[in-house]
Amino acid sequence: MDPFAALADPVRRELLRSLTPGPTRVVDLAAAHPISRPAVSRHLRLLVEAGLATVEDRGRERHYALDRTGLGPVQGLLDDLHAPARFAESALDGLDLEVRRTVRDRRTTVGTTTGTTTTEETA
């Protein structure tokens, strides 16, 4: 199953959130959700098929865990959708320097032509 299709269901997204702290038994996951245990098991099976969860048999119990590597395609899409910067941040440093220099020059010019000193000049 495609990870995007698996994530489309709110129950499966909630199950993935429940798996974030670590491996969890099906019984514990079913107790935390208002749906039946077989329904939780079906959702978990789909999450395993999508590569978003792993399952390990420990005796008679099945423990499910989040598999973060399955989120790679989703993270890739989110990275692609993130807007790239329009310009380099270093360009802003140059602009900031020029604005400060212009403000300083104007204050100096106004102060010398009027013969007054403002509090901003002395600061």
UniProtKB/TrEMBL annotation:
UniProt-listed SUPFAM superfamilies: Winged helix' DNA-binding domain
One Pfam family, short name: HTH_5
Signal peptide region: none
Entries under InterPro entries matching the protein: ArsR-like_HTH, HTH_ArsR_DNA-bd_dom, HTH_MetalResp_TranReg, WH-like_DNA-bd_sf, WH_DNA-bd_sf
Comp. bias intervals (Low complexity): 109-123
Keywords: DNA-binding, Transcription, Transcription regulation
Sequence ranges assigned to domain HTH arsR-type in this UniProt record: 1-89
CDD domains cross-referenced by the UniProt entry: HTH_ARSR
Positions of the UniProt region annotated as Disordered: 104-123
Name of this protein: ArsR/SmtB family transcription factor
Lineage: Bacteria, Bacillati, Actinomycetota, Actinomycetes, Propionibacteriales
